Amino acid sequence: ETSNSKINLSLISGQEEVKEWQVAFKKSLAILEKGEIEKLVLSRVYSFWINTPLDWKALLNKLSERFNDCYLFFVKRKSSFFFGSSPEMFLKVNDTSAEVESVAGSAPRGERVETDKLFEQVLRSSEKNHQEHSFVSKFISEILIRYSDNVRIIEEKQIRKLDNIQHLITRISEELNSKNKFFE
Q: What is the pLDDT of residues 41-63, one digit of tens each?
């Protein structure tokens, strides 16, 4: 809802979405069982046209308030907008360096301090979560090495606690060979 009008979105109905997910899951499972890839993530994308002006400042402020422990992003290219909030810093570029975060491996938050610590210990000791985190960190590093001779881990496998979830996180940095080539 914007400050002066409501936006109606028609998305896939529940039953149709479940059927699509079942098909996608079966295809994904077959690919994983063949050993063609090591990790696969299913996700949804919603694209839609909005035919009324938006109050972007109000919308982004609301998003920032709701997810105040996350990174807010907004990209406008021609008439297309890409925005949201994520616990993962996608990219930070300085004069000669770039930094990204690998966020993978997660556990719920506990309602009490004791259960929260227990979930954290499970996350820290979970082979599955560490393997998932290694896949993502390796993937990111392999992309960054194309643009730098010096890719390094700044901070490895820390726990980031958000309101409803906690993640394993690694900060990765690189010295840029060419900023222009990197942005291309």
A: 787 777 777 788 889 999 999 99
Q: Quote the CA–CA distance of 18 and 25 in Å, as a whole number.
A: 10
80-86/92-93 β-pairing: unpaired
107, 169, 101, 108: CA torsion to nearest 10: 10
Q: What is the pTM of this model?
A: 0.71
Distances (CA, A) of 61 to 53, 70, 79, 104: 16, 13, 21, 27
Backbone angles phi, psi at 125, to 5 degrees: -105, 0
pLDDT in tens, 103-113: 999 999 999 99
Tell the residue number behind the tokens 């690189």, with chain if given: 174
In this structure, the dihedral spanned by the alpha carbons of residues 14, 19, 22 and 25, taken in order and rounded to 10 degrees, is -80
Q: What is the CA radius of gyration of the chain?
A: 20
Residue 102's closest CA among 135, 64, 68? 135
